Amino acid sequence: MKLSKFFSFAFFLVIGIHMISSADFFKKAKFEPPDGKVLLIVGQDDKTFDEYVTSIGKVPGGFMIYTNIQTMGGLDENSSDYGAGRNFTDEMIKKYPDTVIQIGLYMVDMLKDTYSGKYDKNISKLADWAKKVSIPIFLRIGYECDGTHNHYDPQEYQTAYKYLVDKLKSAGVNNISYVFHAHGHNVNPSLDVYYPGDEYVDWVAFSYFQQGQDMMEPVINFAKKHKKPVMIGESTPMGVGTGMDKLSWQAWFQIYFDFIKKHNIKIISYINSNWEVQPMWKGQGWEDARVQANPYVKKKWLEEILKDVYLQSSEELYYQIGYKNK
């Protein structure tokens, strides 16, 4: 009888340990949507976002903004316009409640100054602002870190990334999810040399433009290795645009959404800009990416993003992504 009780106890102990281990293994990342759901974010300047909402008639789950470590502008005041539009994030939060923010933090030629303490006041500004707004924030630190256009030194990037995260956490910020954003334009990327470590990363991201899928899939495999969910940090139909009706949809958008489904992408960030009217980008082949600019593309876009799988702005959004501060 005693032996039977012992084996029963041992059996349930093993089952319990297995359940705990499984739960830990499948633990969600910070602000990760449920399985089978995709958080839709649109950008990348305030005017573009406003026009998207007016035309589409639906507020997406979040909006994109850009700032830099040198000024940390565009949070509680209107940013400077360098030829790609403005950001005034506080105003956007008031206008579009029940959304998340996705921030691209520019750090080119500023890494050493970051970890040497030169920009500590700006880091404190970001920390204080994040705590004040108290909504979910996805922070892409030094986005497209391995891109040759950014010429980041890998060790300096790691050091600056960790310095920033440590500063924000020590300031008591708990509503920022930290994103390691690779470029996604190399069939054999050296991501390990840039990676700051699992304890510093909540999400792995890449950019989706016109490159082959064989350049993006290595980033997805890297994320799987580190058990991190995947975000498309930037996407736009470069070289295609939306002006060719059905051809635009088939040549880029259909492939894009098929890729998202195939690889269980949890967040997508679509840049809905008319690149050709923005001085910073005009004439570089980015085209007009506004989905509302073409009736066929708009119709197909609505058919896709209004499916139940896509998370838009709603009173339930924060609950769905596990944000509990509100």
List keywords for this structure.
alpha/beta, 326 residues, TIM Barrel, 38% helix, globular, single chain, 8-stranded parallel barrel, 10 helices, 9 strands
Indicate the topology.
Blueprint: H1 2-25, E1 38-43, H2 46-56, E2 62-68, H3 89-95, E3 100-106, H4 111-115, H5 120-133, E4 137-141, H6 154-170, E5 176-181, E6 203-208, H7 213-225, E7 230-235, H8 246-262, E8 267-271, H9 295-305, E9 310-311, H10 317-320
Parallel strand pairs: 1-2, 1-8, 1-9, 2-3, 3-4, 4-5, 5-6, 6-7, 7-8
Separation of the first and last Cα atoms: 53 Å
Q: The CATH topology, please?
A: TIM Barrel
Radius of gyration: 21 Å
Question: What's the pLDDT, averaged over the residues?
Answer: 91
CATH class category label: Alpha Beta
Helix percentage:
25-40%
Strand order of the largest sheet: 1-2-3-4-5-6-7-8
* Domains (count): 1
- The assigned CATH architecture is Alpha-Beta Barrel
What does this entry show, briefly?
By secondary structure, the chain is of the alpha/beta class.
Describe the 3D structure.
The protein is α/β, with parallel strands linked by helices and 326 residues long. It has a single domain, classed as Alpha-Beta Barrel (TIM Barrel). It is built from 10 helices and 9 strands. It has an 8-stranded parallel β-barrel with strand order 1-2-3-4-5-6-7-8. Strand 2, helix 3 and strand 3 form a beta-alpha-beta unit. Helix 8 runs parallel beside helix 9. The longest helix has 24 residues. The relative contact order is 0.16. The N terminus is likely disordered.
